[in-house]
Each structure stands twice: as structure tokens, then as C-alpha cells.
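Q: What residues go here?
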């Protein structure tokens, strides 16, 4: 089964990713990216020039920038494989998403997770946006470089993470801990909740910390992807200072 990505940067990143590219569609009236063309030629990817209407139809009129790449279907990483990979790491960050439904939020979170070298992203099989072309477009191909796992029960997954030494930090504007007053050394699992409801009750009950980003303005909460980026940035900064 094949899927596709669209947009110049997502296509460029996907060509260097884990999945197998098969065919590239390019808008017939653009000056194509030489690096993309060379990579396709090197990998034996078929290149086809097409009218804008064809790209618009496939992408549902989203901004494809004249590029669409067909490639093998996205495959989620097995959770046990992630645990085996991180078992000997001194510092590790795993990101858990508790019901993120906006594909733009999800794509942005994937990009931030990749930027801050998160070991894996864990999502639920239900009540969560999955890996759609829009998510991949927003992530600019970062999904090729950070493992993404599907699980059926987030609370059970948290319990498994605790057994192997992870502390659970849930992001919530109702938290009693401050995000920049937590010790982030060691193994941390960060939970980001649904855009409207936040982190679910059972997940909060199984968290070691419920942390908020303090605000001094009339706006008391941040968008899910922005809050996640703030947490990940601070975790990285904290460890860099501690490990000097």
C-alpha cells in the first residue's frame, strides 16, 4: 500500500527517509529543485510532470508547492523496540500524546520532537489524529527521523514506562508544579493532552508531576504544540547545563 507526501521540504526529507519512494509528480510549470531531481534519479524514482489541477485534486487543494511524492505506506514503530533502544540511555525523553486531534498540532509536535532529539512519540490508536498527508506536510518530513508508536491504552503504557525508570510529567495549565522547577535528569516521559480537554484523568492520576507554564498575562494557556516545544526546549537546556 502506498501513501504520499507533498511540499518541497517534506518531499526532500522523505526521499532521505526510511520509506521507499516510487514516483514523484512535479508541477509542469515550475523550475524543479535540482537536489530533488538528482536524488530521484539516483534512487530510480519515476518523475512525472503534471498540471496543477491534478496536484490540487490529489492534495485536496492544500499547498503542495508543485511537488508530490508517492512512497511506501507509513509504518508505526513497535513500542518494545523503542524500549530496547533506550534501555541503556542515561537521559531519555519519550513524548506521549493524549488525544491530539488537530493535524497541524500533531505535525508541529513531530517536528519539535525531532528537533529536540526525542527518542519516540507515542500516540493512541483511537481518539487521536493519525499519520495523514497533512500531518506529514506540517512536520516537513520529521516523521522519517523520530519513531512514532501506536498503543491501545495510554495508562498501561505509562505503567510500563515507570517499570523501566521513567518519570511521568504531564503538561496542564491546572498543574501544581512549575515546568522549569522539575529535575529532568534521567528518563522522562512527557504527556501532552487534547487541545480542548487536556490530559485525561487516569493519565493525570498516574503522573509523577503535573506541570504548568506560568503566565502573567490574561492568556492562561498555550496551544498544544507550542507548550510541548517549551517543555522540550527546557528539558534539553536543563540537561545541557547539568551535564557540562
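A:
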Amino acid at each position: 500500500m502506498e501513501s504520499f507526501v507533498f511540499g518541497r521540504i517534506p518531499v526532500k526529507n522523505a526521499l532521505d527517509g526510511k520509506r521507499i519512494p516510487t514516483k514523484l509528480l512535479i508541477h509542469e510549470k515550475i523550475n524543479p529543485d535540482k537536489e530533488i531531481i538528482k536524488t530521484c534519479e539516483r534512487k530510480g524514482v519515476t518523475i512525472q510532470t503534471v498540471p496543477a489541477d491534478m496536484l490540487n485534486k490529489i492534495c485536496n487543494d492544500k499547498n503542495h508547492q508543485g511537488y508530490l511524492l508517492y512512497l511506501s505506506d507509513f509504518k508505526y514503530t513497535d513500542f518494545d523496540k523503542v524500549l530496547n533502544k533506550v534501555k541503556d540511555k542515561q537521559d531519555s525523553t519519550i513524548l506521549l500524546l493524549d488525544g491530539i486531534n488537530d493535524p497541524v498540532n500533531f505535525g508541529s509536535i513531530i517536528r519539535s520532537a525531532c528537533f529536540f532529539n526525542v527518542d519516540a512519540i507515542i500516540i493512541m490508536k483511537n481518539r487521536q489524529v493519525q499519520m495523514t498527508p497533512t500531518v506529514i506536510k506540517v512536520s516537513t518530513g520529521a516523521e522519517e527521523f523520530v519513531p512514532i508508536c501506536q498503543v491501545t491504552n495510554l495508562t498501561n503504557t505509562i505503567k510500563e514506562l515507570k517499570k523501566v525508570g521513567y518519570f511521568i510529567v504531564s503538561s496542564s495549565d491546572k498543574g501544581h508544579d512549575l515546568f522549569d522547577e522539575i529535575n529532568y535528569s534521567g528518563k522522562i516521559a512527557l504527556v501532552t493532552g487534547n487541545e480542548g480537554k487536556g490530559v485525561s484523568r487516569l493519565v493525570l492520576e498516574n503522573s509523577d508531576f503535573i506541570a504548568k507554564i506560568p503566565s502573567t498575562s490574561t492568556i492562561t494557556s498555550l496551544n498544544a504544540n507550542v507548550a510541548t516545544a517549551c517543555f522540550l526546549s527546557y528539558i534539553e537546556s536543563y540537561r545541557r547545563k547539568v551535564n557540562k
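A: Context that may help when evaluating the design: The radius of gyration is 19 Å. DSSP finds nine helices and eleven strands in the chain.
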